[in-house]
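Appendix B, example 12.
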Amino acid sequence: MRWLVGWSSTATGALGGSGGYDGRHDDAAYGGRVGHDGETLHPVGSQLLWGDPDPLWAVGDWRPDEVRIVKADARTRVAVLGTCGATDEQLRVGLFAARGGALRHLTAWPGSYTAIVQVDRRITVCGDLAGARPVFHTPWAGGTAYATAALPLADLIEANLDFGHLAALLAAPDVPAALHDSTPYDGVHRIPPGHALILRAGAREIAGYEPVASLAVAAPPADPESAVGAVRDALIEAVRTRLAAPRHVPDIDPGPVPGMGPAERRAARGMPVPGIGADLSGGPASGTLALLAAGLPGMPGTLLGHGTGAGERLLAVTFNDLAVGGREAELERAGTLAANPRLHHVVVAGGEEALPYADLDGPLTDEPGPSLVTAARHRARLAAGSADHFTGYGARQVLDAHPARLADLLMDRKRRHLVRPVAALTKADGSVLVPARVYGAARRLARMPYRAGLEGLAERLMHRTFGSDDPTGAVGASLAALTWGGAGPAARWLTGEALAEVSVRLQGAAHRSGVGPGQRPGDYRARAALARHAMDLRVLEQAAEIRSQRLHAPFLDNQVVRACRALPETLRVQPGARAAILRTVLKGAGVTDLPPGWGAPSQASATAAARAGLRMAMDPLLTLFEAPLLAEAGLIEARVVRKALRAAAAGEPLPLDGLADLISLELWLRRLLSRRGTCWTGTPARARAVPAGIAPQRRAVSSGG
């Protein structure tokens, strides 16, 4: 894991630090405070970026080119951590703009990064639009501590678990009002995507830097051709920024092993291949990135000081699931794409050991997420990847149309554009009643106020009447999504007390002053789905992390997200829109020779793999839920979940993603409570998150909304 952490104090000089901030401050001086017993306090394994009175550290295995600091004067500086395509002069211009209050400049460079600006005692930390690089904060020592990870802040304040947040994470994970700004740690808060945290001598403010479309006025009509061209330019620039970064060689191979070649030694030791690589699943998103990375100038596989200088082929990795078939067409398309002489194709075969739930051990992640149960599956693929590895994560969320966008079309009086998506749903379901049902649901949502939608969901949770929300097929999923918010797939297994807790949180959100997201329902639901996906991708990166490897998800870059949001709704709601947009992107980049069927939706589903994994891991899972921590917290009844696990393994039509939510949260809690140590030095052993564990109690859900 890699993160930033720092704080803004109310005092002019930090206790135990180097005194006041007078413009002559030496950044190499100690940046910390005095601990409980007079110890100096700083993060474990950190490098100090600047010191007192408002210090900032970078923690983890940051590469040298991923940490950049540009100063305008002794009181004004900007730190950018991550992959950023801005030059030093552009950083300086952005710093001057931020000094005057214009924050959007800090988020408009290509790449994926976190920008922190210090102007005298004012500190600004910018989050991203997707939520893949979040910012957290908590009150501490009379000021505010902030970080790009929640666990260090939880350790700092010895935070207990926020059971209300955990309940909302299971009952309504896609409803921002239920989660609000909370985290699994009580007292640690998250800023929303598209916002910045501004600290002035310890006082905090959260400001949005992105304009939000108005509910009262329809957006001006966008030209589809120019909008797709903007997506192409943003994607190409995102890929080019990664190619322009210095290459990094993983740890030197310590020597030969009898019977193993270099590639086998690297895989056995968990080391990635040097150079640039990409996923190549046969789907349109990963294929687009692989072809762009292989076709752009910059010798994608060449390392500085290595090779012939003529450029090496880009490593394309395809995962072949031998335990569960059904992806033969995708594998064939991936093989056809990999025939490109610029690509070196590697197929990773995964058997029963790569099924979901096959490996329930793993590292502790910052937050829980459903990808914990599939981390071993992804790690098997990534172990064969490169030091810099492109992935297509996020393409579906930024390009596809959320079903609730049909209500947006009705609000803008664009009814004729509903014909094709509704016809596709009718064809998939085979019922002549589908058009009336879908149109009726879209019309109800278009006329429903946000507050009424939250109150309706709170009522359903309180009375456990959310069974009708369970999606059955494409039509059922679309109808369930045509609301301001729906119950999560795991809600059916929660206790009445936990559901009541989430209901109270929703009612409190509905009655807040200035209620409403200020957006159309479809746009609002699409942004929430993107934030949820980005949060789970962050968990996956930590759980499946390969040493010295960087995963790149260009579809979640700020500039790509902005370009995708500018796509006309009338274009994105059409069936096959994502594949058509990416085909146009590749055509604009000079790639036209695509295999037949490229971009076709996969006929295989992750459901088969999840059910097979459940059957294989039934005994360990039943043992996991013999005395689960979730039951001690009052969120579930162990007997109910064990019964559901047996039923799902037997083939009953239960929501498997809901079981994945429950299992991953139980695994995360066990890893959190079994950890030793803390993220900080200079603190007593008790100074870590959840110091007392989970005490068995009847009423554990008590954090409120």
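The mean pLDDT is 86. The CA atoms of residues 67 and 81 lie 5 Å apart.
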